Amino acid sequence: MHALTRRQVLGAGAGAAVVAGVGIPVSALADADETQKMIKEFAGGAAIKEGRVELDMPEIAENGNTVELGVSVDSPMSESDYVKDVIILADGNPNPGVATFHFTPLSGEASAVTRMRLAKTQNVYAVAKMSDGSVYMTKTTVKVTIGGCGG
Fold first, then answer.
1. What is the spatial distance between Cα 115 and Cα 142, in angstroms, rounded to a whole number?
2. Distance between CA atoms of residues 96 and 129, nearest Å
3. Paired residues of 60 in beta bridges
4. Tens place of pLDDT for every residue, the chain, 151 residues?
């Protein structure tokens, strides 16, 4: 079976493919190894610590097409001690990279709220890089009853 790319499906018209009964494979999902590789690259060799990062997500998402996500990092956000970047990763989506947030001391606080798609039940990671080079991480598992990336 030949896997169609997103561009091919959109070019041919996804509606026609569904009406014709052609299955759109979702087998090209990221895996835990790919996600861990991205986390290590983001950390740049720094030891990854637990704490300071909080993910606010539902334990169960009835529909993976739109899952609310809130992330915050405990930081004074001063010129000498602030959060530089936060990445959000999901290890069961076609691409584990979901979002990147950039902060400065002028941000006032390191927090963001957004929505994301989840293809299936999976781990979601939030990794924060601080101005001193330290890296903090947290993860949560979200159970998805209806997949949002074609599942």
1. 13
2. 18
3. 143
4. 455 565 554 554 444 333 333 333 444 566 789 999 999 999 999 999 999 999 999 999 999 999 999 999 999 999 999 999 999 999 999 899 999 999 999 999 999 999 999 999 999 999 999 999 999 999 999 999 986 665 5
Give dist(CA 77, CA 104) in Å, integer: 7
Residue 54: name the closest of 9, 112, 6, 14 by CA.
Answer: 112
Sole residue written with tokens 């390191």: 110
| pTM (whole model) above 0.70 | yes
* Beta-carbon count within 10 A of 143 CB: 14
Cα separation, 58 vs 67, in Å, equals 8
Kindly list the structural domains of the chain, giving each domain's residue range(s) and its CATH number in brackets, ordered by start: 1-28 (no CATH), 31-144 (2.60.40.2470)
Retrieve residue 84's tokens: 């530089």
Quick one: tokens of 67? 């899952």
Q: Between β-strands 67-73 and 135-144, what pairing exists: parallel, antiparallel or unpaired?
A: unpaired
